[in-house]
Design goal:
With 193 residues, the chain is an alpha/beta fold. It is 42% helix and 11% strand. The protein is built from eight helices and five strands. It has a five-stranded parallel β-sheet with strand order 1-5-4-2-3, with helices on both faces. Strand 2, helix 4 and strand 3 form a beta-alpha-beta unit. The relative contact order is 0.17.
Length: 193
């Protein structure tokens, strides 16, 4: 059934209308340029891919490495969106392992795998050059990260220049708003294959 005015009215309360028109953005960008000389604003380095498998494309790997500033960046894989499944870890990190990057996993999906806050802080804010989020259930990842305090640690890391990257859910999780299918019944925890 096509959308009618009454259908659109019913959805209005769920739509965020706080947006800007391109002309407004251009004007703000011009003002930002003038202020840039006097400000030390930090912008996160994000490489967001539509699909997790895109992380195997050499151009994407090269961009992540370039943004990290290291020849072989230390990559922290956070597989929460895929419920810390090893098969997804292998897919996401394959190219980075092939070029010789050191990779660590941070598993926080289950209570018994969550490291202490001090351990997480060290690996997230002091060790990692790159933080890679897995694809999967975005809502699950965001809620778990908030529950264990990982969200704030990753924000701190991004402000220190750590590259944030990922595909699908691992791409969307770095932004303040996104569209997700995380509430679909078929997008819940899957057993590892």
């Amino acid at each position: 059934m096509p959308a009618t005015a009454s259908h659109l009215d019913a959805l209005e309360e769920h739509v965020d209308t706080d947006f800007v028109i391109a002309d407004d953005v251009l004007q703000m960008a011009a003002l930002d340029e003038e202020c840039a000389e006097n400000a030390e604003e930090v912008f996160p380095k994000i490489v967001a891919c539509g699909r997790t498998e895109t992380l195997q494309m050499q151009a994407i790997v090269d961009k992540v490495v370039e943004l990290s500033g290291a020849d072989l960046p230390k990559v922290l894989y956070v597989g929460t969106a895929s419920f810390d499944r090893t098969d997804r870890y292998n897919v996401c990190t394959k190219k980075f392992r092939e070029i010789g990057c050191e990779i660590r996993r941070l598993d926080v999906s289950e209570l018994d795998t969550v490291p202490t806050m001090d351990e997480m802080k060290k690996v997230v804010t002091e060790w990692a050059d790159v933080i890679m989020g897995s694809g999967g259930n975005t809502l699950h990842a965001l809620l778990r990260w908030k529950d264990v305090g990982l969200d704030l640690l990753m924000k701190e890391a991004s402000l220190k220049g750590v590259v944030l990257c990922g595909g699908s859910a691992g791409a969307g999780c770095w932004f303040s708003s996104l569209h997700t299918d995380s509430l679909r019944p078929d997008n819940m925890k899957n057993k590892e294959h």
